What we know:
The chain has seven helices and 13 strands. By secondary structure, the protein is of the alpha+beta class. The strands form two sheets. Strands 5, 6, 7, 8, 9, 10, 11, 12 and 13 form a nine-stranded mixed beta sheet that branches. A four-stranded antiparallel beta sheet has the order 2-1-3-4, with no helix packed on it. The radius of gyration is 23 Å and the shape is elongated.
Amino acid sequence: MRADKLLADLGYGSRKDVKKLFREKALTADGEVVPSGKTHVYPDEQKLEVFGEPVIYRTHIYLMMNKPDGLLSATEDAVQETVVDILEPEDQLFEPFPIGRLDKDTTGLLLLTNDGKLAHRLTSPKHKVDKEYRVHLARPLSAEGEQRLKEGMTLEDGLETKPAQVSHTDDPLVIFLTIQEGKYHQVKRMIAACGSHVAELERIRMGPLVLDEDLKRGEYRELTEQELARLMKQR
C-alpha cells in the first residue's frame, strides 16, 4: 500500500501532517528511509518504524466493552451519545460498530469491530449463538412463567421465541437467561409475557466471549488472542 495511506490510516494526522513526516524522513522500511508518500510499503513483510518506533498496521479491530447505561448501541447519532463516542480517537479510526446491539438502558458485554464477516457469523440466526443475560426482576417468576421461557412462547406481535435456558441464583429476583435470538427488546418482552418486569438487564456472555469482570462500566479493551480465536471458531 502507499506509504502516505498507511500513515493516514494509523492516525498520524492530516494530509499536510503526513507530508511533513516524509520531509522529516520519519518513516523507515527495514531500516531504509521511505522517501515519498507515493512509495509502496508492505506492512506484512517489512519492519516499519516512525521516528524509530515500530508501526503495527492492521485492518481489523476487536474490542470488548462493558457498556454503561444511557449510551446508544450505534456508530453515530445526531442527539444522543453512542458507544463509539467513548472510544479513544485511535480506535475510532478503524470505524468499529457494535455487534448484537444492546438497548440504551441495558448494560454489559458489547463487542465492537469492523470485521463484517465475524459480525454476520455472530448475529445470523443459523449460527445459533448464545446470548446470556443477568436479569433483575421486579418480582419473582412463577413456575408457569419460567416454564413458558423454557418451552418458547409466542409474543403479542407474533414473534415465536425459541426455548430459553433459565438458571437461578440465591436471589429470587435475579436469574440468568440464555437465548439465541436478538429481537427488539426481546428479553424484556419475554419477561413481561411471563407476568414480571425487567428492573435491570446486563449481558454477560455472547457465544464463547464472557464479560471481563475487571472492566468497569464504560471501560473497554481489545480482545486477547485466545478470545478472538474462540470467536473465530464459532459456528
